[in-house]
Amino acid sequence: MTDAKTYDVVVIGAGPVGENVADRARAAGLSAAIVESELVGGECSYWACMPSKALLRPVIARADARRVPGLRQSVGGPLDAAAVLAHRDDYTSHWKDDGQVGWLEGVGVDLYRGHGRVAGPRQVTVAGTDGTETALRARHAVAVCTGTRAALPDLPGLADVKPWTSREATAADRVPDRLLVVGGGVVAVEMATAWQALGSSVTVLVRGGGLLPRMEPFAGELVQEALTEAGAEIRSGVSVTAVTRENGTVTATLDDGSTLRADEILFATGRAPRTDDIGLETVGLEPGSWLPVDESLRVAGSDWLYAVGDVNHRALLTHQGKYQARVAGAAIAARAQGVPLLETDRWGAHAATADHAAVPQVVFTDPEAASAGLTLAEAEAAGHRVRAVDYDMAGVAGAGLYADGYRGRARMVVDLDREILLGVTFVGPGVGELIHSATMAVAGEIPLDRLWHAVPAYPTISEVWLRLLETYRG
């Protein structure tokens, strides 16, 4: 191993989060290196956000078209699965990262391909794919941005079954005739939506009482209703106790003693941090653990180690990880420049406050479910004095124009003491593009009497904002 190469910042993991940490460091005049063991661009680009939305976009577009008079007759047939999969392949750049590598070069970040491990304070070693080992040293910061992997249940023989995880579900090159989906969260409902529309017979197995348990209850209810109408079967309150594969057919045994057979089984049962083999033990941390951080994303007890994105378990969403990266990059630069006191108070320049107060999310099902901030239950649990204001989105003129028989619901959670919004949820066709307005209202803590003067254009679905405020005012 040669002498260590020194940079101001060394980043482990070149997904969107790591890329943004490195970019913010370079923008501040710091030198940066990034280490990646797979593809530059990470999970989001090749096995999550981009391929899943490429699969779902034709599904949603067809569903919308079928609700428009004069158009529904033209889109009555099945989707062209081969064309959808080819479109998905284009959006993953056919699992090649040349474009992302070119971007890193353009911003002046050095790329090291191989497995990166922390080797002590401010030290990183890279085991290259060619067998070489490179030592890197960071003057100011090492940022762990290794993300998460699918968490599989502890079922005997599961590895022999070769189950789908989110990676296989978004990268599959054929449509299975029968698909079992285990789980009720975002990955489960999005992949059930996609593969059902592409021609699979889908059964969703939910251990809990319903879908999308981390959103307002009506979100999961409306999505479940639509999935059932589309032909999927939803079975709640059941668990898989055993799974086998014989002659290509998967058999799942449930805790009620029944069995189900399918061509593929997808386990969408949570995520685990990719921290099991990155050298955490060399700095007194537990391999395989989530990494707790302060508001500037610095690992607790360290003055040089940062954990940004999914690995810190604050908000497991790509856009939140990129937000954290911008905050962490600013904090790293400020500390490198000797700034004596960082702005780590609530909503400060070096604080990732939105991770707690204003997280936006869109579930790209039919109907879409979108939220920003806290649910009613979360707000109540946090001790806020709140009121939920609900509105049937079918009562908005723009919704009726968007789709015949529009079905949806909106809720805003009002902090009664401050008269600001703590959370907003929309469910319905096309609501994904509404959510940034809610995010701005929540993050900006805009008083409701000022929101009253934010006039929605008529006739758009966004007029639901006026209806919610009218309902609140009475």
TrEMBL record:
Keywords: FAD, Flavoprotein, NAD, Nucleotide-binding. InterPro entries: Class-I_Pyr_Nuc-Dis_Oxidored, FAD/NAD-bd_sf, FAD/NAD-binding_dom, FAD/NAD-linked_Rdtase_dimer_sf, Pyr_nuc-diS_OxRdtase, Pyr_nucl-diS_OxRdtase_dimer. FAD binds at K53, G116, D310. Residues 7-320 form the FAD/NAD(P)-binding domain. Disulfide bonds join C44-C49. GO terms for molecular function: dihydrolipoyl dehydrogenase (NADH) activity; flavin adenine dinucleotide binding. Binds 1 FAD per subunit. Residues 359-465 form the Pyridine nucleotide-disulphide oxidoreductase dimerisation domain. GO terms for biological process: 2-oxoglutarate metabolic process. Pfam families: Pyr_redox_2, Pyr_redox_dim. Its cofactor is FAD. Transmembrane segments: none annotated. NAD(+) binds at G183, G184, G185, V186, V187, A188, V189, E190, G270. Belongs to the class-I pyridine nucleotide-disulfide oxidoreductase family. This is NAD(P)/FAD-dependent oxidoreductase.
